[in-house]
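We recall that each integer encodes one residue's backbone shape. We quote one record:
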Amino acid sequence: MTKNNVYKPPEAELQPLDSSQNIKFEKVATGQRLIIYAILIYFSAVALRFVIGPFVLIFVLVSLVISIIGVAKMLDGMESHIVTRIFVFFLLFVPLINLLTLLSLNSRASKKLKSAGYTIGLLGAKRPG
């Protein structure tokens, strides 16, 4: 007769994520954070349009640069195909479509990071644990 302890908790062999996976998720998290900042700067620029006049263009350009850097990091971490990257970068220069593209990428990044155990907050993701 075998001795099986029915009250013993189940054991699982958990494999920690290798460092290359951690680096990919960190790139996605950093890119997501930059995209969120770019969206907030853009909305601030639109709100300040009537107050500061033509100087709002500076905020819009800063938002564009931050969004390009964030999208590059995020798509690199997600290992997207080069055709997808080129298409997304093209969409960043179309005025209203760029916001929809950034929001869509933010949603994709949130799903990917949640599945990896990250906690998603208002201004980006935090590492698990």
User: Anything to note?
Assistant: The two ends are 42 Å apart (CA to CA).
